[in-house]
From TrEMBL:
InterPro entries: TF_E_archaea (IPR016481), TFIIE_asu (IPR002853), TFIIEa/SarR/Rpc3_HTH_dom (IPR024550), WH-like_DNA-bd_sf (IPR036388), WH_DNA-bd_sf (IPR036390). The gene is tfe. SMART domains: TFIIE. HAMAP family: TFE_arch. SUPFAM superfamilies: Winged helix' DNA-binding domain. The keyword Transcription applies. This is Transcription factor E. Transcription factor that plays a role in the activation of archaeal genes transcribed by RNA polymerase. Facilitates transcription initiation by enhancing TATA-box recognition by TATA-box-binding protein (Tbp), and transcription factor B (Tfb) and RNA polymerase recruitment. Not absolutely required for transcription in vitro, but particularly important in cases where Tbp or Tfb function is not optimal. It dynamically alters the nucleic acid-binding properties of RNA polymerases by stabilizing the initiation complex and destabilizing elongation complexes. The lineage of its organism: Archaea, Methanobacteriati, Methanobacteriota, Stenosarchaea group, Methanomicrobia. GO terms for molecular function: DNA binding. Transmembrane segments: none annotated. It comes from the Archaea.
Length: 222
C-alpha cells in the first residue's frame, strides 16, 4: 500500500480526486467491490440508519402477512416497536455524518480508472441482464505518475523563468492587469480597464522565488 500521508503523493491525489477521494482510497475494502459497497463503507452511520429503516419495513410487511394469527402479530409488533426506536436513534446519529455520495464515489472511481489506478471487472447477471462493476484499487503506477508531474512542473517553472527573464513588465496600480513592454506601448502605458497610468514592475523578487523553486528540484532530467 502507498503512503497516503507522503506530501507528494497526498498533494498529487488531492488535485486529482480531492479529499473525498483520499478518504475513499484509505477505506477501500479488500478485494473486488461495487460502488455501492464502497459508498456504504464511507458512510457507516448512514448505512446503519438505512439498514434500521429496512428492518422496520420488513417487520411491517411481516405483520401484514401474519394476518389473523394473533400470537405472531403480537410478537412482531413488539419487535417492530423496538426496531422503530432503533431506527430513530440511528437516524439521529447519522444526521451529522459527513456524506460522500454514491455519485461522488462513481466520479472518483472513474478518475482513478482513467489514470489506471483502478481495475474494473464487469459482470452481467444471467437473470436480470444487469451489469455490475467490481472495482479494485491498484496504486502501483503512482511513483511513475508523480515523477511525470514533477517533470511537468519543472518544465513550467523553467519556461516561466525564461519568460520573466526576457521581458519587461508594466502593471496597473489597481491590479487590473500585467502587460509586457510591447503591449504597454500599444495602450500608451494607460490601463485599458480602469484608465490609471501603468507602472514599471520590478520582477527581481519573483525571479528569485522561481530560481529557489527550480533549485529545489536539484538534478532533474528534462
Ligand atoms: Zn487598471
Amino acid at each position: 500500500m502507498i503512503d497516503l500521508d507522503d506530501p507528494l503523493i497526498n498533494g498529487y491525489l488531492r488535485r486529482l480526486i480531492g479529499e473525498d477521494g483520499i478518504t475513499l482510497i484509505r477505506n477501500m475494502p479488500e478485494g473486488e467491490v461495487t460502488d455501492e459497497e464502497i459508498c456504504n463503507v464511507l458512510n457507516p452511520l448512514k448505512t446503519q440508519s438505512k439498514e434500521a429503516d429496512d428492518k422496520v419495513k420488513k417487520l411491517k410487511a411481516e405483520i401484514k402477512a401474519a394476518g389473523e394469527n394473533q400470537t405472531d402479530v403480537k410478537k412482531l409488533e413488539k419487535e417492530l416497536k423496538k426496531a422503530e426506536k432503533e431506527a430513530e436513534k440511528a437516524k439521529a446519529a447519522a444526521a451529522d455524518e459527513y456524506e460522500i455520495t454514491l455519485n461522488n464515489v462513481r466520479k472518483i472511481l472513474f478518475i482513478l480508472y482513467e489514470n489506471k489506478f483502478t481495475v474494473c471487472r464487469r459482470e452481467r447477471d444471467a437473470n436480470s441482464g444487469w451489469l455490475t462493476f467490481r472495482w479494485q484499487i491498484n496504486m502501483d503506477g503512482i511513483d511513475y505518475q508523480i515523477e511525470r508531474e514533477k517533470k511537468k512542473l519543472y518544465r513550467n517553472l523553467i519556461k516561466r523563468k525564461e519568460y520573466e527573464d526576457s521581458n519587461v513588465f508594466y502593471v496597473c496600480p489597481q491590479n487590473c492587469l500585467r502587460l509586457v513592454f510591447d503591449e504597454a506601448t500599444e495602450t500608451d502605458f494607460i490601463c485599458p480597464i480602469c484608465g490609471e497610468d501603468l507602472i514599471f514592475e520590478d520582477n527581481e523578487l519573483f525571479k528569485q522565488l522561481l530560481d529557489n523553486r527550480i533549485a529545489e528540484f536539484g538534478e532533474m532530467p528534462k
